[in-house]
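hi! just following up on the protien thing from before. the input was this:
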Amino acid sequence: MSNTIDAREATLADVLAAREKRVACQHDLLARFGKPVVCLTLNIAGPVKVNAETAYAFRVGANRLTEGLKTMGFPVLAEETLASVAGKEWLAAVDAPAPALKRLCVSLEELDELGRLFDMDVIAPDGWKLERGAERRCLVCGLPGRGCASRRVHPVAEIQAVTWRIIREHRLRGSAKRMAQLTVQSLLDEVCVTPKPGLVDRADNGSHRDMDIFTFNASAAALWPYFEACYLAGARDAALPEADAFRRLQTLGIEAERRMRAATRDVNTHKGAIFTLGILCGAAGRIGTAEPDAWLRACAALAGSYRAEGVRAEAADGLPSVLNIGLPALRRAKESGLSLNDQGLSVLLALLAGVRDTNMIARGGAEAAEEVRRQAEQLLEARSRGEETRSLRDLMDEMNRAYIARNLSPGGCADLLAATLLVDRASQTPELMGL
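and the predicted 3d structure came back as:
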């Protein structure tokens, strides 16, 4: 994410004008409803009150406050948002006892990660502002803040630096958590797509005897911290050369594999996904975007020093099967109105037809792997021409029985299906980058 602060300076006159407008709005809400009024502003030192960072912090504060009001069962009767060069303000008349409303605000100021920047005032129906009780701590040193402010202990530049650091760290961690959530969801969706030829799904274990859907669920849950850590490492190592950043991801991947095996009693459920999806998470953090083309180019740059076969080589090449096969197949399936399950089947069939899966080669040999790939290609072409009349599920169920009989399992295609689902979801999730 950008470290640029878009400076927009507010003068004293701007601040005073904003205050007058806020007070007028408070009086109006009190007169109309006779209920307490809550007001959210931000504590931002210096003349710069409006930029991308403060917009993000204000949005978080407003969301936290409205969620808190809903949780407490305090109805919002009316609300107003004021905006000026002096910053944004959110005001609302709330049907709640003023002391209880103030306790909620203080708890948000004290407990939320960004709470030190929130200023949540509560105006009682009689027009008096409720006091918060305990004095707030200094943003910089943590001592009682009133003493630092009155003596001007900390330069404005120092306070600003701490403020921007707090906001950026919050944005980064929020994005990392969201990326981890989407990644684990993609793994869970991949295993739930049914029926998948030779793979574990909701119906059977495919060609596997040592794992089932519950093994996959346990593995995916154990990998959540790894995907979050990959995103954070990608962002924090963004200034490092790709080879150095990749080695950091490799170290995280080694620990992730240990976690996976501990969760699955030493069963290898997601070794390929640990590599591929870990690179995806690291690349997204490194460039600060989930736009598919740029994202997959960043994957190639990160993994370019790593040479191997199969899905690992895919990552080093920028996951061309995801970009050129998986995503187009998913788009067509969505446009056809297919269910999420059948969207996954459509993507998997396209991958089976277009990808040389090294897992298939390892289990059945190169000749068998190429034979079933050509069969999938022929079936895909027949479906596109309308010559294959069986339903997609019936078709894949028949393929499943054939794969099981030959002990074949396209694990590489399964990883690419999960990667396709992740890229599609993340690219449509603007909040991933704290926007």
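The CA atoms of residues 39 and 91 lie 4 Å apart.
The beta strands are 37-42, 76-84, 87-94, 118-123.
cheers
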